[in-house]
Every structure is written in C-alpha cells, then in structure tokens.
C-alpha cells in the first residue's frame, strides 16, 4: 500500500525512548511524569463503589452532572469565578483529548497557532493534523523561560486563530505571573483569537505563589478554554480523565466534535471522583505535598555539580549540567540512563531547531526512597 503520512516528521516520542531505556537498563525512571506511589485508597474504593452501584452505562456527553457541579464549586472556591455545570464544563478522556478536540474544533487549514517552546509535545502535531501552521515563540533558559510579549505581538496577524499557554509549565516548571496574564489579555482583546490554557498542574504550585488561571481575568475568560486533569491531580495517570471549561458558545462548538471522538467518559470513575471531591482538602493539600518532595529533591543535590532554579510548579525540576559536560542533552540523558542508572528528559527535543541549553528535566513525583537513590547518583556525577 502507498500512502502519504499526515505527520511525516513525527517519530517515537522522547518519553517512549527514555522510559524504554530505563526499563532495559533497570534505571530509576525520573523521565516520564508519573508517580511511583499509589492513588488514595479512598478514591479507589469510591470508584469501585460506583461500579457496584450501577454507574456502568453511558454518562451524559458532557459528563456526570455531580462531577460537573463539584468542578464548578472548585472554581468558585479557588478563583472566585465559575462555569455553569450544565453548559460550560465537559469531562474528557484526559487533558490531551480535550486539547485535541479544542484544536480540531477551531483550527482550519492555514490558520496560525502560537505556542511557547519548549512545549508539551502534543500541541504541534495536533495543529498540523488540522492543516494549521504553528508559530513558535522560543522561551530562553538564560531568562528563566519567560515569555517575550513584544515578540508575541509581532507574530499576531489576521491568520492567528489560537494561542496555547501552559501554566504551571511542563517541561520547565515555571509559572505565568499575573502580569503575564494581563499581557495576554490585552494582546487578544478585540480579536477572534481563542486561548487554550493548559492548566493540568494547577494544584502543584509552590512557595505561596498563586495559580494564575485564565478564568481569573474576565475578558480573557470569554475567549478561553481551561483544560485540567484529574490524573495528574490524584496520582492515577492511567485513568485518563480530565475536563475542560469554556463559555457556553465555545463549548457548544467543542461538543460537536467531542461527540464523534469519545462521546462520553468512563462513568464509574466520574462518579467516584465526584464523591471524592466533596472534600476540598483532597486538592487543597497538594501544593504542600509536592513542595515537600521538591524541597527534598533539591536539598539532596545541593552539593552536586548541577545548577538549578527551584521549580515554581508541576512535579518537574530542570537541572543545568553545563559545568559537567558539553555533550548534547539527548546524548547525555541516554548516557546517564545507561551508565549511571537514572533516566531523565532532555529539553532540546521541545525547542525550536532542537536548541540545546544543557538542561535535563527530572520528575520528583516519587517516594522518598526513590528520590534518595536518584540523588545519590546525581551527587556522584
């Protein structure tokens, strides 16, 4: 058979490569972003209880109403604003499905989509699948990955359909400031630009920083999709359940595509999470939980040869190895896995032209024992 690939430049992801190397060489895997500890048994029991109580058939296309209602309450509690549970919230098969559906709903051939690099690796292929053109804005490591908003202004034109932001930011662990969001709000005002705000790490933000959700800014909220993940929040990345929120008129268009993609999401999981979230502590306690892990990780490598700026959010920490070797980051990450038994993620694969800043990303969503064994390796390099 002869065919032309719709994604000719896409190969095996770096996550698959590094996790495969980690498995092959029995290395400690701090590459892919998943916890090595269990989800709360109470949540697991609630999902099982939902199955035993008959929640085993189709949920509504927008999701279990109880779950949508508790999400609306969460937004009101955290941000003093909310979304209507019946018309402005949809449960999705993880955050990536939400992102795929949002882009597919609105991006047409030759539309331009601005993304900030290093960027989560699904954004660009999804845009290209829909015939859109990615306009990358490179954030610089030497400037702590801050956005150059003047450059953003220069890139906007009549073809600009969407801007994708991610805060807290994967893979760098930085966060958008209040000023950043005001700049975004001002730049997009009086345009037809849709903002896709990827906020899956909203509950992992440190040092008393406040998460600057797009919904906090009234004009920005009117044009934004906020995307979130239960899998990241509740330590069960294999469950693949998330949600998105948007104004009614945008969500109406989203649902036209969503219904032909997955239609609805695993019902007993939705019911179990709805019951679990009746206690807000289950997400309110997460910043302190993960900051403790970040602080432990950094305290254990303070005397190593790696340099770092403490992560402000997510469960990732970027380490600068420029004083150790001049190796290309992909090569160093592979050698670190094979020879030293510790897997990480090189950031160059997420940058424009694979630019190499000599930094690696490590996941600290691990048990104390795992972190101690990993940092012993780092300190001996």
TrEMBL record:
GO MF assignments: transaminase activity
Regions annotated as coiled coil: none
Cofactor: pyridoxal 5'-phosphate
Residue intervals of the Aminotransferase class I/classII large domain: 27-376
Gene3D superfamilies, per database record: Aspartate Aminotransferase, domain 1, Type I PLP-dependent aspartate aminotransferase-like (Major domain)
InterPro entries, sorted: Aminotransferase_I/II_large (IPR004839), Kynurenine-oxoglutarate_AT (IPR051326), PyrdxlP-dep_Trfase (IPR015424), PyrdxlP-dep_Trfase_major (IPR015421), PyrdxlP-dep_Trfase_small (IPR015422)
Pfam families: Aminotran_1_2
Keywords tagged on the record: Aminotransferase, Pyridoxal phosphate, Transferase
NCBIfam families given in the database record: PRK09082.1, PRK12414.1
Protein name per Swiss-Prot or TrEMBL: Methionine aminotransferase
